[in-house]
């Protein structure tokens, strides 16, 4: 009797587990896998509207739902997808023709209005995250006055003109040779009329189930912090994907996703956490893959802080860091040591533009640091949610040993917290940043980051010569001329050292046994057209 | 008068509640006549303790930890803060009996130097909590009435705040650049949130003690409240109070480690076992010693204080003999 009672109690949790797993609904492996749905891990997207999405999780989902005007080939040259042709004679006025007969997931036709309305909404008041990308279009100042409180004098960009249903023109304020390249960015997706309210703004609940024109459509709505499901859109006119759908599983913790990948509950993990890199080879074998990425990791000096005002202090700190050792031992070779300010993935990259300032010379660094009177205590601020502790601590240990200073890593909960402190000009010491390019152009590594009005110039760097060279490059007639100007601008950075390059990233990803042909592009997105399900 | 008082005082030390009626046991009125022959409760307890092996083990560990906290350089000649990737995950060598961790820090030196902060916070919080508990418990138990009612409700309220949760919320507000400030704040927060159980013990001991005949006698002889509390009641409260505070000291050390593990306690460059464990955790599958060494240090320290408290409690409580 006693034994039987115990057995009954022991059975309870089993029953409960069975009952609970039954609640999972469509969660079962065999159910979702048999029809060719792949599961891809992402983080919770900030937004799912093209105008606001600028992080990798959101752009991954949008890449499934929307078709871009242009995409990029292996050499990062743009080729037309939804666009029929993109032409210009003077780099200032661009004519965009789109392919006829494409439809949104709700059956609506994709017309030139779909683009014009979406772009006008994104630029209006300059309040969307990606408004910066429309600032080169004529009439931007009227819809988004520099003074945020002023009322815009226009609702639409005067530079956008409809020609007919399948073509429109874009007039820029100044010639920009890489405008066609820029059009592949998330911000330039079209939106259906169903997305707008009567005022021409995007509806608030549109992001819960975006309607796009891409190879996949939403299956249900965005289940926050849980999952976003998409299924194949059969009326898609572009290259049809091999899979019948994708479940984007949302993870809060990379370590949790890694465990799921090992357990076979996740098919693609886009970025293996640094701490798991040492064991990933053994855990995954040939399912552990790497591909180039456009990430550029660097440490920035707050130039508003007197301690770092002297360029020799910045040079000395840069020379005291052994980049290769950190790459080899902390990242296990999964990233590349950076000695330039521009990623090797874009045209115009030159190796070692940083020169002597990035060379590891501990003895010289120490002498230089003492002569320049560098601070006795250094802090490196970083965001704690990104897995940066290991390399920041290692960097600090190198600075301690090589410069004879105190050095501590200072974690901030989120990257936004760090940026807020920087914007208030609080003392944060040296702080980490990273840049993933928006579109494959050398300009994208220079303009937003270091020009005086750059959207991501958080360190207060300002050099009129640099600003001029970047602008000259934009206005140059040919790409080669542009690159020559931008390379001169990069040389100024190497002299001024507002930041120190550390590493170029790579996608280190893991896949399950159920998928093949998994490619992750330079923007850390899985190529959903190529991925195949093998079961 | 003075004769009586000394006798009463020495006798009162032994007036542990619950001893009444035990033949030959101290605490009964007749001991006044034969005070020299009968051992006091403290002496009795000491006799018990001496025979308790656990007590000696716990005491030995506590002593070693104390020495380690005061003079860490006796145990290691390495500098815990000099780490180099050249030593990453290196095996044991001279001066580093447990090898090096992922950042190339000496695991043993780190653990040894972590002792001071743990002990400092544990002891500091225990003293603060002890003082608060003693004063508040004494006042509530002795005066009774509405004072007791108010104080008891306050105790209930503080008791309802979970120690860790409260500490996490408060520690988040402490700036992270001043390490001495964080240490003081930890002591303050743990002490202020952790005094309640001890206060309850003190209060109930005071209530039992104040009903004793000798307290009435002292009062009739004209002793004031302060004198009665200090000389007649306090000695009776001391034993259970010390027991609970010793155990609390261990618990405070564990709490500090938990907070540091969660990243809201001490932060580098301060060395703490908790943050060492958190750092080593992610590389656990590659090498276990960086995780094991601070964990064992922490477990042994907490265990030692709890065992010590337990041994003392057993020695003082005749029912457990």
How would you describe the overall organization of this protein?
The complex is a heterodimer of chains A (535) and B (321). In chain A, 30% of the residues lie in helices and 19% in strands. Chain A is of the alpha+beta class and 535 residues long. Chain A has 3 domains: 9-65 and 205-292 and 507-533, D-Maltodextrin-Binding Protein, domain 2, CATH 3.40.190; 70-195, Dipeptide-binding Protein, Domain 1 (Dipeptide-binding Protein, domain 1, Alpha-Beta Complex); 294-506, Dipeptide-binding Protein, domain 3, CATH 3.10.105.10. In chain A, the strands form 4 sheets. In chain A, strands 1, 8, 9, 10, 11, 12, 13, 14, 15, 16 and 17 form an 11-stranded mixed sheet that branches. The longest helix of chain A has 22 residues, at 2-23. Chain A is globular and about 70 Å long. Mean pLDDT of chain A is 87; it is low at 1-12 and 18-34. Chain B has 321 residues and is mainly alpha-helical. Chain B folds into 2 domains: 1-38, no CATH class; 41-320, MetI-like (MetI-like fold, Orthogonal Bundle), CATH 1.10.3720.10. Helices cover 67% and strands 0% of the residues of chain B. Chain B has helices at residues 2-12, 41-50, 53-70, 107-143, 145-160, 163-171, 179-193, 196-210, 213-220, 225-262, 273-281, 289-316. In chain B, helix 4 (107-143) packs antiparallel against helix 10. Chain A binds chain B through residues 255, 275, 278-279, 322, 325-326, 329-330, 379, 384, 389-390, 393-394, 397-398, 400-401, 406, 408-411, and chain B through 81-85, 88, 102-104, 176-177, 263, 267-269, 279, 282-283, 285-286.
